[in-house]
What does this fold into?
Amino acid sequence: MGLIQSRADSVKDLIRDDIVSGALEFGARLRIDELAGRYGASHMPVREALRSLAGEGLVVSETNKGARVVSVDRRHVEHLFTIRIAVEVALARQAALAITDTQLGAAVGLERARLACVAGGYYAQGVALNQRFHRRIYEAAGNAEGLALLDRHWLLLAAIWSRYGYRPERLGGVASDHDHILRALAERDADAAGTLTAAHVTKTRHDMIAQIIGREQSRP
It folds into this structure.
């Protein structure tokens, strides 16, 4: 059983990577035979991998229709960010009251690294560091359930950013938001941390939706 689970985990990682990179398109049908051939695996680990990826929000299982990669449109993104804004604001408020100087220093270091990536034109790495910056802050809240929910959403968000691209001006522009959030945390000001986080995540939602709309309008 352990060997089967290990193989399922390996296949899951491969499918996830292909979804995030765009090798498997949003909405694409996922057929067991095709995936087994693609990844050199038997049917059982592929089925286990798909069940696990459904739990991560990257795959949708449909009765009598099998599985497909999640479909992403403006409405889906709106719903996703409605949840994220509520959770991130709650975690930011909790973090402001619990964060240590060491944790705050680690977040400051990640922001400096993010700025260096943006300045060098390494936008994908900047996006990854942005996620680590926020996660490091939210870890201070001590809310494992909230953190797990954000981690689950991040996989899908990474796939969307990869598919629709990044706006360099947005990646650099978040610096001011991050600076104000860090100040609120340093002052242990939960109200300010929550308000600033809500505004910051809302801007990200608008930016992602604009990227999706722009891509749709550019199609022939």
In short: The mean pLDDT is 88. The CA atoms of residues 108 and 182 lie 8 Å apart.
